[in-house]
Amino acid sequence: ASPARRLLFLPGTYPPNLSLLLSRSQSAVSVPRDFEGCSTLRKYLGQLHFLQSRIPMGNGQDAAVPVTWTEIFSGKTVTHEDIKYEQACVLYNLGALHSMLGAMDKRVSEEVSCTHFQCAAGAFTYLRDHFPHSYSVDMSHQILSLNINLMLGQAQECLLEKSMLDNRKSFLVARISAQVVDYYKEACRALENSETASLLGKIQKDWKKLVQMKIYYFAAVAHLHMGKQAEEQQKFGERVIYFQSALDKLNEAIKLAKGQPETVQEALRFTMDVIGGKYNSAKKDNDFIYHEAVPALDTLQSVKGAPLVKALPVNPTDPAVTGPDIFAKLVPMAAHEASSLYSEEKAKLLRDVMAKIEAKNEVLDQFMDSMQLDPETVDNLDMYNHIPPVLMEKCAALSVRPDTVRNLVQSMQVLSGVFTDVEASLKEIRDLLEEDEAQERKLQELLGRVPPAPASPPGLAEVSKECSKYLELHEKASFTNTELHRAMNLHLGNLRLLGGPLEQVRAALPTPSLSEDDKQVLQNLKRILAKVQEMRDQRMSLEQQLREMIQKDDITTSLVTTDRSEMKKLFEEQLKKYDQLKVYLEQNLAAQENVLKALTDANVKYAAVRKALAEVEHKWNTTVQTLVASYEAYEDLMKKSQEGKDFYTDLEGKAAKLLERA
Q1: Which PANTHER family does the UniProt record give (predicted)?
Q2: DSSP states of 102-139
Q3: What superfamily in CATH does domain 166-310 come from?
Q4: Structure confidence by residue, pLDDT tens digits, 73-98
Q5: What is the model's pTM?
Q6: 165 with 200: CB under 8 angstroms?
Q7: What residue spans define the domains of the chain?
Q8: In DSSP terms, which residues pair with 77 in a beta bridge?
Q9: H or E element, residue 195
């Protein structure tokens, strides 16, 4: 990593956000060699990314300033008026720092070292794929590819150590080791490239020698474990050739290890003891015990590597890594315009979805209206288990007036008595008048003359006139009295029922009689109606979620840091967040056809049950209305009965006087 630094900003006074960035850039010059140093570099990288999207500081742009770094191989300073060069150098140092931390780790936990090496590979990969390679020698495509494979090789080494310590299966360990070899072979190819050799100079030979030593060493480890697998499978001839190959490769590694530190030499000697012992033992056993043919190595299947590591991606705009955007309030007009375009994309998405929802809702509403199925009343069996409140109220009112029926009967009996007395008096008067008239005719016949009928005496004429009047009144009242008695007889039984025990009232109300098949049909219909409602509720919920999600969706911050050429791609990626909701809605809408088909079939079976329930419900309502009407008629009956008694009492007095006069 480059220790030298440059001037990114000229001396002077800066706005608060630029002052903060300047402070961070100074912190990024010589970061501590720990995780905090990595965090500092990542935060600074993110803020640089936020800055370049707002201020024209790129190559040839108006606000570009000179950026100077020291090239790592030659030690020369390199200057570019391009903020992307600053980002590239920070990325390079981030990868270098992660690699140093991975190498410095004491291997207390292989995962820590492995993660550092993968992060280093990620930084170099992002640098190689997103920045120009012409900035400096150490940022050429070949050098960065070399760095990436060196990092991945070391990360795979960490997992190899762990798998060996965990006593994993020999074949798995062999494949992991073979992948280490593959990564280092890629690195070696990059080192052998003429361009790389000229760029690296003298260190190219040292690096190549070290990488080749590692290739032979880990190839030896891979064949050692392939020999152990052959031993487990009792393939003793294969075991010998694998151990022999491992021994040969280890010898090559030892030759290339001259000049390496003592720790490396010690590791090679230990490995030689292990592989040499394994080979000698295997050869001796096969020569004296098993006598299996030893195949040629090239006749055996080669060991394919198992890549268990990858370059961990770098995201310079991840707020969890970069911290808050210190330039958040600086939103370019282009970002506002792009935000409007994105809003239109969201609106289009919502319109498309709502068109489908409304079409399905219209079909559903028309279908349900034609069915005339109300989920609340389709199953009204529960109402037959209770006396309706209006009837309970009447029963309660009669329970505190136990003499209701008796009073009504007595009142009607008194009325009947007076009625009879009046009728008898009027009949007697009429009989007297008819008798007088008959005697008068008889007298005239005896006298032998038939003169015109003599005028009745004035008093008798008045009696006759009044008698006719009273008879007419009595005849009219008689009809009313008959109707009153009929009404009383009609309501009397109901009043006795309402005044009796509640069990009798409940027993008098009609109840449906359904078979088990009928009940099953009803339950099935209720279940499907519940499905229809569930479908409606889910649809409304998903629609509401979609609306809220669209309303809260603001990607202005992302638009600020995105190049105009990448806007369409960003829109597509951002709109993918709605895919899951759209899938749920599509499933809901697609289910409607099957649900309505099932409802149609259930409704056909329900027709007979529906008719029977409707008839019982009609009878129930009629009975309840009749009982309520009887209660409400009681007061009217008592009133009319009293009026009848008053009328006949008066008429009785008049008839009595008229009878006396007659």
Answers
A1: PCD6 INTERACTING PROTEIN-RELATED, TYROSINE-PROTEIN PHOSPHATASE NON-RECEPTOR TYPE 23
A2: HHH--SSSHHHHHHHHHHHHHHHHHHHHHS-S-S-GGG
A3: alix/aip1 like domains (1.25.40.280)
A4: 778 888 999 989 999 999 999 999 99
A5: 0.58
A6: no
A7: 26-139, 166-310
A8: 70
A9: helix 194-200
